[in-house]
Amino acid sequence: MCDKRELRRRFSALRAAARSPEADRLILKNLMHSPFWEADSFFVYHAVGTEAGTAEIIAALRAAGKTVRLPRICGGVMLAAPYGKLETGAYGIPAPAEGEDTPCEVALAPLLAADGEGYRLGYGGGYYDAYFAAHPGVARVGLCYEAQRTDRLPHEAHDVPLQAVVTERGVVLFEDGSPARRG
C-alpha cells in the first residue's frame, strides 16, 4: 500500500482527468434520485479546484426549498454555517461570513478517494472526521468521480467512514463494510 502522500498525488491526478460539467450534472441527477434527497437540510462543501462540483447542487437544493449550510472553520473546528454572504475562509475556500454550527441531516463531503468500505482519503486536515465524530446523526455522503473509487485505502482509528458515495455512475451505499450499488 502506498503512503497517503503518494495516494493523494495519484488520486488528485485521476480526479482532475475525470472532472467535467457532464459528470457533475450526472452526480447531481444521481443525488436527486437517492434517498438522501428526501432530507430537508444539507451541509455542502464549496467545490474548489478539481473537486466534484457543488454549485449546481447548492442551486438545486435551494430551489427545492432545502436548507443549505457550508463549512466555516472557526478556532480550528469546522462548523456547518448557514448559507449566506461568503468570504474567503480557511485555505482560501469561500465560506459563510458568519453563523453558528447548525445541525443538518446530510453532509456532502469532498474527497480524493473512497474505498469499498466507505473510508475516504481527504487532504489530511481531519476536519470532516472530527465533524462526523461530533455529529453522529448526520448522514455522511461523499461526492466524487468513479475514477476516485478504489478497493482499499489506509485508515486510522479516528477515521469515520462514509455511508454512501455519489458518482456520475450512481449511488453506492455502504452496509457492513460492503457496497451496494444503486442507480
Features of the shown structure:
24% helix, 4 helices, 183 residues, 12 strands, single chain, Rossmann fold, alpha/beta, two-stranded antiparallel sheet, eight-stranded mixed β-sheet
Description:
With 183 residues, the chain is an alpha/beta fold. It has one domain (4-178): NagB/RpiA/CoA transferase-like (Rossmann fold), CATH 3.40.50.10420. Helix content is 24%, strand content 28%. It is built from four helices and twelve strands, in the order ααβαβββββββαββββ. An eight-stranded mixed beta sheet has the order 3-2-1-6-9-10-11-12. A two-stranded antiparallel sheet has the order 4-5. Strand 11 (170-175) and strand 12 (178-182) form a beta hairpin. The relative contact order is 0.19.
CATH level-four homologous superfamily name: NagB/RpiA/CoA transferase-like
The total strand number stands at 12
Number of helices: 4
Helix content: 10-25%
Annotated CATH topology: Rossmann fold
Distance between the termini: 31 Å
- Give the integer mean of the pLDDT values: 93
Global outline: globular
Which structural class fits the helix and strand makeup? alpha/beta
Strand order of the largest sheet: 3-2-1-6-9-10-11-12
Strand content: 25-35%
Compute the number of structural domains.
Answer: 1
Largest sheet report: 8 strands, mixed
CATH architecture designation: 3-Layer(aba) Sandwich
Query: Which regions have little confidence, pLDDT < 50, spanning 5+ residues?
Result: none
